[in-house]
Amino acid sequence: TTTVVWLRDDLRLADNPALRHAADDGDVVVLYVLDEASAGVRSLGGAARWWLHHSLAALGAAVEAAGARLVLRRGAAIEVVPAVIQDARADAVVWNRRYGGPEREIDAAVKTWAGEHDVEAHSFAANLLHEPWTITTGAGEPFQVYSPFLRACQRAEEPRDPLPAVRRLAGPDVASDDLDEWGLHPSAPDWSAGLAEAWEPGETGATRRLTQFVDGILDGYDASRERPGVEGTSRLSPHLRFGEVSPFQVRAAVAGASPREDRDAFLSEIHWREFNWHLLYANPDLATVNHRAKFDGMRWRRSPGDLRAWQRGRTGYPLVDAGMRQLWQTGWMHNRVRMITASFLIKNLLIDWRAGEQWFWDTLVDADAANNPANWQWTAGSGADAFPYVRVFNPVTQGRKFDADGSYITRFVPELAGRDGSALHEPWDHDPPADYPEPMVDLRRTRRRALAAYDDIGASG
Ligand code: FAD
């Protein structure tokens, strides 16, 4: 048999059921398609394109070391995948499943084509611990609330152990594009130095990160994950996003780790990822449509100038600015600071969550179709199991609590270096540096304005 293995968000040789199945079965063609042509598929943001470039370079080297060649093609998958199957004279095509609406339609169309052309097609579960249709309420509906969802996952069939890596591959030679010509890597200007310093895309980097986490950071995770100034979380999110490591591998690596509360806190975050993907599966429009319809009546402000100040980290609120600059420089932001910066945009600036979601989509290396919109809707209060809308984060109080010594703020806002206490957290009252902006809004007044706007749409009901 010759099988085309169509890789997508699963750029790894270990724990890859589709690849494993094909390699056990005979000859293999490993294919990646850059699909920016199919209807409904959202083009990757700039930071994610950078990541993809390097991840594919790493994958190409690993496939070559195993004895084959990674085939790269560009175009609408419903045309490209059949063309590669025909070029390779393959009898079968396999892939690991995706859960977004347009992606599922494409996969179904390829499956139909295969059926009509006497080509076998098989799909596998690889990127979620539980398939969305297996975790439902008693009434067979998708969960809208996280805690019962988590309990249902814990009661469900235990996720499988990870599969061993594929080490030997053989197959026919098929023409491939040149990765460098895809233009995923930024040029003119190349703004990616900060990303390259922070990350090692690819399966080797993912494995290294997971080992570092399990051997060190996991101990104490439950407390240190709230402190953006320390390396207290796994930073696995972009590796999970591109499937350089699977949740099955992550789960197996932390099994048995102690202390138990740290492991449980970490696994609970992994299940937020699951919850959001299940939510997207049930709601393909998650990035564009308010999950709670009454939010359609919300009177958001339109202010390109305010949006830009937020994007650039020039709001005058040190913790917000530090977060937005961390995002711009490194392609990632600490979770607590994501919540605070998102709350600031939505509540203090009263700007539509979709504008923030789009900025994160463009700048995060871990941006994905489920977790980004779901977390934005959660913060806005328009989402499933949303954050109580009456809670408006105060960035000054949050900074004092979670970055008391300012190690995070001063790393990304050098204008405030050497300051502490009020001079750091409320610089406007203490001989403010000339090059640091004045606060762009009054926190108390804008909080009241937000609560009034939420009341107007009856958000509490
Ligand atoms: P850890 O604390 O080590 O957690 C381990 C893993 O659990 C993460 O890698 C991630 O896969 C998952 N996880 C952790 N927190 C969450 C969460 N709140 N929701 C869903 N999964 C979670 N995460 C993304 O992966 N992609 C996004 O596009 C994304 N956008 C976000 C936007 C906003 C406004 C907010 C508030 C959060 C967003 N998150 C997103 C969730 C979270 O901030 C990141 O997953 C986390 O910061 C990644 O860092 P880590 O790997 O060190 O996390």
Automatic annotation (TrEMBL):
Its cofactor is FAD. Keywords: Chromophore, FAD, Flavoprotein. It holds the Pfam family DNA_photolyase. InterPro entries: Crypto/Photolyase_FAD-like_sf (IPR036134), Crypto/Photolyase_N_sf (IPR036155), Cryptochr/Photolyase_FAD-bd (IPR005101), Cryptochrome/DNA_photolyase_1 (IPR002081), DNA_photolyase_1_CS_C (IPR018394), DNA_photolyase_N (IPR006050), Rossmann-like_a/b/a_fold (IPR014729). Residues 1-129 form the Photolyase/cryptochrome alpha/beta domain. PANTHER family: CRYPTOCHROME, CRYPTOCHROME CIRCADIAN CLOCK 5 ISOFORM X1. Belongs to the DNA photolyase family. This is Deoxyribodipyrimidine photo-lyase. It comes from Tersicoccus solisilvae. The lineage of its organism: Bacteria, Bacillati, Actinomycetota, Actinomycetes, Micrococcales.
